Automatic annotation (TrEMBL):
Protein name: HD domain-containing protein
Source organism phylogeny: Bacteria, Bacillati, Bacillota, Bacilli, Bacillales
Pfam families, sorted: HD
Gene3D superfamilies: 1.20.58.1910, HD-domain/PDEase-like
UniProt-listed InterPro entries: HD/PDEase_dom (IPR003607), HD_domain (IPR006674)
Family annotation (SUPFAM superfamilies): HD-domain/PDEase-like
Annotated SMART domains: HDc
Positions of the HD domain: 31-132
Length: 220
């Protein structure tokens, strides 16, 4: 490893400590373990896709520090991350690339254009994969509890799409969240490496929902 690579790796280690400190006590589904999973998945996808592994790792580690659920506003969150990055020995171009990735990767923003760089695609896929599958099911119920939502409400029509306003208000149930977001994610994955993983996780969620509905009706 040359000196330059060593320095970039040191920034990634510092990003890990920074994110850990910020997200350790989160109960909204953005806890440190989510970030750890996304960061490991981003590394794995980056290797398979030939993306810049260290840059993907740094962006993944920082991606939720700026989340608007955890800050006064998205802008305030991004400013916090940007201030931290500026203190790091990292080329300005790389800092900008990381800021671009974390400010445009969220799903709720909806109108974000497709990720411009392979690194952005990889980190976005890693975050989305953590919202598909067995762990995603757990995160969804954790989040619903945090919000004070019901598990399921058959009187509420399933809403497959929500306006940004509705999304912000978060009038939903955990089960509805599968239809408004989780089941759509596999078709929004960018890279082939992520699509392969997403397919299997998607099928698992479909089986889960089928069993859930049978149990709800007392049939199984
Ligand atoms: P991230 O920023 O990690 O992509 P989000 O902020 O959208 O994810 O959500 C964090 C976790 O909480 C995800 O697993 C997501 O599916 C879940 N979640 C988000 N909104 C809702 C909701 N309205 N009801 C239930 N779960 C939700
Ligand atoms: Ni995330």
């Amino acid at each position: 490893m040359n000196a330059m690579e060593q320095q970039r790796n040191a920034v990634a280690d510092a990003a890990e400590a920074f994110a850990k400190q910020k997200l350790e006590h989160d109960l909204s589904g953005h806890d440190w373990w989510h970030v750890q999973r996304v960061s490991k998945m981003a590394e794995r996808l980056a290797m398979e896709e030939g993306a810049d592994v260290v840059l993907c790792r740094i962006a993944a580690l920082l991606h939720d520090v700026a989340d608007e659920k955890l800050n006064e506003s998205k802008e305030a969150g991004l400013a916090k991350v940007s201030a931290w990055l500026q203190e790091q020995p990292l080329a300005a171009k790389e800092q900008q690339h990381i800021m671009e990735i974390i400010s445009t990767m969220s799903y709720a923003a909806g109108k974000n254009p497709p990720m411009r760089s392979l690194e952005g695609q990889v980190v976005q896929d890693a975050d989305r994969l953590d919202a598909i599958g067995a762990i995603a099911i757990a995160r969804t119920f954790l989040y619903a509890g945090w919000k004070g939502h019901l598990i399921h409400d058959p009187a509420m029509p399933i809403r497959e799409s929500m306006t940004l306003e509705q999304y912000r208000e978060e009038k939903s149930t955990a089960i509805n969240h599968f239809y408004e977001k989780l089941l759509k994610l596999k078709d929004k994955l960018n890279t082939n490496a992520a699509k392969r993983i997403g397919e299997e996780r998607h099928r698992y969620m479909e089986r889960y929902l089928e069993q859930f509905m049978h149990e709800w009706e007392g049939e199984r």
